[in-house]
Amino acid sequence: MVLIGLMMRQVLSHPNCPECGGDRIRPVDMRTATLVVDGEKVPAAWMYRQCQGCQARLKWDIGQDKWVELEPGEWEEVIRNAEEIPS
Ligand SMILES: [Zn+2]
Predict the structure, then answer these.
(1) What's the CA-to-centroid distance between 18 and ligand 1, angstroms?
(2) Where are the chain's structural domains?
(3) Which end of the chain is more exposed for a tag (fewer CB within 10 A), N or C?
(4) Model-wide pTM > 0.85
(5) Which residues does 73 contact at the CB level (< 8 Å), separation at least 6?
C-alpha cells in the first residue's frame, strides 16, 4: 500500500522536462517490475513521458524519484505495447 501511495503521488506530480525545463509533459505509459537487489525483492515502477515542447523521451523512476536513462530500443517497445491498449 505504501508503494501505491507513492505511485499515486508521483503520477499526480509534474516534474519539469530535464532537457528544456518545460512543464508540458505527456504521460505515455507506466510499468512495474520486481527487481532483486542484494537477494531481496524490491518493487519498482517507472513512468514513461514525452515532452510536448522538445519531444524528449523521458523515463521517471518512481522509487528513486528521478529521471533515468532509457535502454536502447526501450521506448519503441513501450510505444508498441501502449498502442495495444484499447481506448
Ligand atoms: Zn522538453
Answers:
(1) 7
(2) 2-83
(3) C
(4) no
(5) none
Neighbours of ion ligand 1 (CB under 5 A): 17, 19-20, 22, 51, 53-54, 56
Please state, in angstroms and rounded to a whole number, the distance separating the CA atoms of residues 36 and 25.
30
- pLDDT tens for the chain, 87 residues: list them: 566 666 666 555 668 999 999 999 999 999 999 989 899 998 999 999 999 999 999 999 988 889 999 999 999 999 988 876 565
Distance 36 CA to ligand 1 centre (A): 32
Quote the ligand 1 centre to 68 CA distance (angstroms).
Answer: 15
